[in-house]
């Protein structure tokens, strides 16, 4: 995972409020990097380091960042705080934590006031956040669009291969197949 970006324009910035969120957020970076995008990954808190978070967002935009992915648990204000500092797409990843297992994070992330949109994926859905960011960027990048489609085709093929294995095991006329 790219931790510091030296000399390259940032395609997607991934931010999280705590290092403990890293394993949840790692799939976003992995899928984006597999699609050939430059990723910057940071730990910046909307509450504990608000000035640093705002400064990073502004610098990332200047560095060409096309989308932000923000993961946070509990009150989960990171995505909203980032949205307040940019008009670039912001995708929130609610992190499962605490007594509510991420439900509080989900509600905090999706309940944004008018004018501050944050796209939100499922609790812990960082891989989908990465794919969504890639799809957004692919609207103006035909080569990336082709890579995203190829990645989707790989997933389709995997399901169809699994279907063929199961059908071969159970056959069409067995009671288990009905």
What does this structure look like?
- This protein has helices spanning about 20-35, 50-60, 80-85, 105-110, 125-140, 140-170; strands at about 10-15, 40-45, 65-70, 90-95, 120.
- The protein is α/β, with parallel strands linked by helices and about 180 residues long.
- The protein has 2 domains: about 10-140, Rossmann fold (3-Layer(aba) Sandwich); about 140-178.
- Strands 2-1-3-4-5 form a 5-stranded parallel sheet.
- α1 (about 20-35) packs parallel to α5 (about 125-140) and α5 crosses α6.
Task: Give a quick set of tags describing it.
five-stranded parallel β-sheet, 178 residues, Rossmann fold, alpha/beta
What order do the helices and strands come in, and which of them pair?
Elements (H helix, E strand, L loop, with lengths): L11 E5 L5 H13 L4 E5 L6 H13 L4 E6 L5 H6 L6 E5 L8 H8 L8 E2 L5 H13 L3 H29 L8
Parallel strand pairs: 1-2, 1-3, 3-4, 4-5
Helix pairs in contact: 1-5, 5-6
């Amino acid at each position: 995972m790219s931790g510091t970006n030296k000399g390259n324009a940032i395609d997607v910035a991934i931010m999280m409020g705590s290092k403990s969120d890293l394993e949840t957020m790692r799939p976003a970076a992995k899928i984006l990097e597999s699609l050939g995008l430059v990723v910057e990954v940071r730990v910046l808190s909307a509450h504990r380091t608000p000035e640093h978070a705002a400064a990073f967002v502004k610098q990332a935009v200047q560095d060409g960042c096309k989308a932000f992915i923000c993961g946070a648990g509990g009150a989960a204000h990171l995505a909203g705080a980032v949205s307040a500092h940019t008009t670039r797409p912001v995708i929130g990843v609610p992190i499962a934590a605490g007594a509510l297992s991420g439900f509080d994070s989900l509600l905090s992330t999706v309940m944004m006031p008018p004018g501050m949109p944050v796209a939100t994926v499922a609790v812990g859905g960082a891989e989908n956040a990465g794919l969504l960011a890639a799809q957004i960027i692919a609207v103006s990048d035909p080569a990336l669009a082709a890579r995203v489609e190829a990645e989707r085709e790989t997933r389709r093929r995997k399901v169809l291969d699994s279907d063929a294995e199961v059908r071969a095991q159970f056959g069409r006329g067995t009671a288990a197949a009905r």
